[in-house]
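Sample intake sheet
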Amino acid sequence: MISSIRTKGFITGILFTLVIAISGFSLAKLPVFEYIGPLATAIIIAFIYRQIFGYPYKIASGIQFSSKILLRAAIILYGLKLNIDIVFAEGLTLLMQSVIVIVFSIGATFIFAKMVKADMNISMLVGVGTGVCGAAAIAAVAPILKSKEEDTAISIGIIALLGTVFSIGYLFIRPYLPMDSLEYGTWAGLSLHELAHVALAAEPMGEDILAIALLAKLSRVFLLVPLCFILIFFVRRKQNKESIKKIPFPYFLIGFIIMSLFNSYVLGTHIAVNAEVMQAVSVFTSILLTMAMTALGLNINLKDTMKRASKPFMVILFVSLLLSLFFYMSI
């Protein structure tokens, strides 16, 4: 009887996150929401639900499954978006620039967060998200940094908001910038937060410019795995011998690498895969990631969020402005 109730709660919890995720996708097609995307929209819906109705503890097991297992599954499948072969063949310069982006973003965030005494965990999460690839990067490093799910959700919300504002801002100022379309695409790819934000800012410039922008962005995605291993090294150095064993190894990153290699050297060269199939896989990945974001959003407490998120938001706003300005001047 008890086992049956637990199973029912588990399944209901997963379905609950699915319903909100689908709602996020639906709302994201409407004006205003279309700019922030389904991930942030789902987090907003879950956040509002939590503040009005409280946390649904009876179905918590299913919600936690979505926030942990489905999140890792989504990151593994996210590897199919990365063609390592193209990055190596055409983007070695971009790869070096991406290293600078990541080092600058994380380093500047750490320094400014220390200066204003911002919440360091949230600040470092958004710093990684800014430097690499937004929500996916935050989700990947969160277990390494032992972040609370609430901190992870807050960080993703900050990245979604800032990335949207910046990408729309890029479109508005583009006609007034003394740079050609190719330079603009590179700038967008190196300085904007999410793949979706890069696409939003570069798509109006045409397919060729969009391809350059996405290549620049994918060179940053490529560096997610080595960054995670570097973070593991530094975290372990700071911990004593007993707590070293407690640091979780992100095995899902191995899956990410395998999927990237599969996409680069199997799907991309030997097998003619139907574009509709790959599109379906991409949509499925987005749904899993949005379900995970829903589960994370349910963990946000408004009072605590307002208290802890304001300073990290200002820090990452300043870092993002510096990043945009720096690469604008260097391109």
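Comment: The chain is about 80% helix and 0% strand. Residues 302-330 form the longest helix (29 residues).
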